[in-house]
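A further point concerns the way the authors explain their paired sequence and structure data. Since the whole study asks how a given chain folds, the encoding of that fold should be made plain. A single example would do more here than another paragraph of explanation. An entry of this sort, consisting of the sequence and the corresponding backbone structure tokens, reads as follows:

_____
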Amino acid sequence: MDEKLILDGQKVANDVKEGLKPRIAVLKEEGIIPSLATILVGDDPSSATYVRMKGNACERLGIHSRRIHLPKETTTDELLQTIHELNNDSTVHGILLQHPVPSHIDERAAFEAIALEKDVDGVTSWGYGQTALGFGLYPSCTPAAIVRIMEYYNIEAEGKHAVVVGRSPILGKPVSALLLNMNATVTTCHSRTVNLPEIVKQADIVVAAVGKPEFIKGDWLKKGAVVLDAGYNPGNVGDVEYESCFQKSSAITPVPGGVGPVTISMLLKHTVDAAERSIERRTS
């Protein structure tokens, strides 16, 4: 029987966080505490949970978490003002605006207002463009997590056919760009793709980023494919039908416990990276 590799995201996340501890200690000796500001607009319970999880992860590692909760009536201009204040605060190294914001707010304008050097969640078009060109400092955290999992488990992208199912600006598109920069041949699929199962069956690497529970089926896969499931849906299920995909794959991320924990660890890493770069800017 072929041995299956379960890509344990918690193990990868712990490895990332262990690597950050000595760096945070050095920063504190310099009088700098890495600081992440999270902005939550409104009272969406899922968003509140995500913000709390990120804040708790920061504090456990010694990163300062500044949580800003704005009422759902907040206007775009008021949100932009909050972001500009954080941009100008030298004690804040990273800014995260929790998605989604209330529908009356221009979310893209808010994302674009975040200073590039503090865009640790990779949401600005400038940061995305640099990532696509291969020199971005802070890729979107979930795509960065997928790459880190592949690196940890020595999963080669070069020369492989990667199929990404989903084209969102903070997941599908940037992970396609990262895989392309790793010398994979990348096909990005979406809601208008014709014959999706046949395309997925060609893939050596499948990235599920579609936001639909158990959407990708095991009989879509080529035997031995690597499956990276970036979905998280109600009921603790991902975007792939786990049992059937497990049978066909050579390696697969579980949900929960796969990409999710690594996403948070990459946010912490980017915040520490940004704090270190703030010293370089100060001394240059």
About this structure: The longest strand covers residues 35-41. Residues 163 and 179 are 10 Å apart (CA to CA).
